[in-house]
Amino acid sequence: MNKSIKKIFIILILVITCISMNPILGNKALAINQTETNDINSIDSNQYPQIKEMLQKIKNEHPNWNFKILYTDIDWSEAIANEYVGHGSSPRNLVPANNSRYDDAWKCKVCGDKAYDNGNSNCASEAAIKYMMDPRNSVNFSDIFQFMQLSYKDCNIQIIRNMVAGTFLDNESYINTIVDSAKKYNVNPYYVVARIIQEQGKSGSVLVSGNGYNGEYAGVYNVFNIGASGNGKENVILNGLKKAESYGWTSMEKSITGGVEILAKKYIARGQNTLYFQKFDVENSDGNLYWHQYMQNILAAQNEGSTLRKTFENVGAIDADYTFIIPLYKNMPSSAAVRPSVNNQETSTDLVKVNVTNTLMLRSSASKSAKKVGTLYRDEVVTRLNKATQKVDGTYWDYVMKADGTKGYAARETYESESTYKLYLVPVEQDNGGNKPEDSQEIVQNDKVKVDKSSKKVTAVPNATGNDFANLIGGNVAVKNSNGQVINLSDKLATGYTINDTYTVAVLGDVNGDGESDAIDLLLIKRRLLGTQEFDELKGNAADLNKDGVVDAIDLLLQKRYLLGTQNINI
Predict the structure, then answer these.
(1) Where in the chain is the domain with CATH 2.30.30.40?
(2) Mean pLDDT over each residue of the chain, to the nearest integer
(3) CATH 1.10.1330.10 domain range(s) in the chain
(4) Sequence-separated (6 or more) residues with CB below 8 Å from residue 305
(5) Staple 399 to which of 272, 328, 386, 415, CB 3.0 to 4.6 Å?
(6) pLDDT at residue 459 above 90?
(7) What is the pLDDT of residues 76-94, one digit of tens each?
């Protein structure tokens, strides 16, 4: 009885701790009050310059079009800062590489020419993000359809046939599946067609050929590229096919239906009801901002919107009664962001690299005695939101934001009392190119987690958290539990969790995936040795405590010693 009460108290303390820490962790949409209106004439031009006149003009040109305004209650500079993250690991926004239309001004200064995704993309610059996010650059006939509302409305099946003509979707079974699944899951069928063509091209790709890749995954299809991510072409394709196999998408029809369901439940039903909101997660219905984005390609929303527009033009349906949702931000610049060019580059957001031997404390206010709210690590790149102009406690305290959204004050340099001067927060542009994150190691680890970038496997010790992964890898991190729900980065990892929809976690000793390495797991390992329990690869990794590639009596002994408190489980 006493043990049970003690366990309850421990759980309560953990819950209270997580709740109390929640305001400073992750990208939670705190104190955001978003409102929507259909009255474009009520827009205050002093607060939101130019946009009202643009909307009035396009409404006059297309009277059947309808417009909704979403007041995001997000400061423009904050939105940009939260999109300009993930350097070196998984940037939130990517631009085409080796494309003459997108010169070096489109590439971020941190990553430069570093290749991402399938090798054909670079990390987007702040100027590129501003240009693509500013709604005033897209409230025009050419680009407006990225704001089209994506929930279901009756469609003309002949328009669908015209849209797919000459593409790999030109098949009556595929067309009927698109229409039926769109209606079932409350998704605009025209959007479904445009999204598939955007993902696969008109001729289709290896992900929809049914032939598999390199002798693997034959007979599965992934029309929406769900889970198709990673560095390098092979990783992208194999991860996409693996995801399709896990969903049982053994035909085009199953892949279409399953993909539409995912789009509906994970995006549209969560308020991301336009292409723009799926690219830039600034809609707050799910209580989160920024992290839940469908794609990294910064041009995707615009490109898919253009596909819709061109299709509607070609079939004579351009002036139907479409509804568009336009986001507005607080403190928007007086004029729209200009297109990035090496001839008109703007001043970059103040990115700084942490220049310390080990760590630098992040505090709640500008004082060395203030509460610690986080840790900055050597060579970590953070965004400086405010540069101090006066010293407090003998140094300047700059207000910075980590890639995971944690904000706080950090000492810019050594204290006046110290005999040797050192600059702790070094501007990226002063780093002479040495600041580009290294990504050459296939396996990296600290004392809590080990990451195999090739196999996309994460091995963790008991009680390791998402923050331990973020501190090792850097960049934007989103951890999901086995139900696909995002958890706080301060929460413990468990076997079966995924990180950034790419890495799969195995916690040593946590065989059953409940986040605890306990007697139940000891029993499971014992049954495995007796031949009465089967383990899949993930459970086998969790049970292999000495990491020799097999689950045997040594692992059982290590688990027992851990439970007795006589030995730790180490990476």
Answers:
(1) 351-430
(2) 85
(3) 443-564
(4) 138, 143, 144, 145, 146, 147, 148, 194, 275
(5) 386
(6) yes
(7) 999 998 899 888 778 889 9
Which of helix, strand or coil describes residue 227? coil
Mean pLDDT, range 524-545, rounded to an integer: 91
Q: What is the Cα–Cα distance from 106 to 345, expressed in whole angstroms?
A: 9
What pLDDT, in 10s, does the model give residues 235-261?
889 999 999 999 999 999 999 999 999
Q: Token pair of 466, please?
A: 């998402």
CA separation (Å) from 492 to 282, 299, 465, 521?
28, 36, 4, 17
Radius of gyration of the chain (CA): 25
- Which pLDDT value is given to residue 128? 95
The residue that leads in pLDDT, 292 or 206, is 206
With 0-12 / 13-18 / 19 or more C-beta atoms within 10 angstroms meaning exposed / middle / buried, residue 471 is: buried
Please give the Cα distance from 435 to 353 (Å, whole number). 7
pLDDT over 60 (residue 35):
yes
3-class DSSP state of 429: helix
CB atoms within 10 A of CB 364: 14
Q: Which two tokens stand for residue 429?
A: 């542009």
| 190, 296 Cβ separation under 8 angstroms | no
The two most distant CA atoms of the chain are separated, in Å, by: 78
**Torsions phi, psi of 280, nearest 5?**
-115, 105
Name which of 519, 525, 459, 447 is nearest 494 in CA terms. 459
Task: Name the least confident of 99-103, 128-132, 233-237, 437-441.
Answer: 437-441
What is the second-level CATH architecture of the domain 443-564?
Answer: Orthogonal Bundle (1.10)
Domain 351-430 in CATH 2.30.30.40? The answer is: yes
Question: In degrees to the nearest 10, what's the CA dihedral of 354, 355, 358, 359?
Answer: -40
- How far, in Å, CA of 209 to CA of 403, rounded? 37
CA distance 557 to 456: 28
417 Cβ contact partners less than 8 Å away, ≥ 6 residues apart: 394
| Distance of alpha carbon 54 from alpha carbon 422, whole angstroms | 50
Mean pLDDT lowest among 361-365, 381-385, 496-500: 381-385
Highest mean pLDDT, choosing among 447-451, 500-504, 509-513: 509-513
pLDDT band at 349 (very low <50, low <70, confident <90, very high): low
pLDDT at 435: 37
Encode pLDDT of 177-197 as tens digits: 999 999 999 999 988 998 898
Going by C-alpha positions, the residue among 337, 34, 328, 302 that lies closest to residue 148 is 302
* pLDDT for the residue 214: 92
558 contacts 567 by C-beta, under 8 angstroms: yes
Amino acid (one-letter) located at 375:
T
Cα dist from 38 to 70, 71, 170, 324, 390, whole Å? 9, 11, 37, 10, 46
Q: Are 308 and 194 in contact (CB under 8 A)?
A: yes
Look at residues 255, 335, 269, 339 and name the one whose alpha carbon lies nearest to residue 302.
339
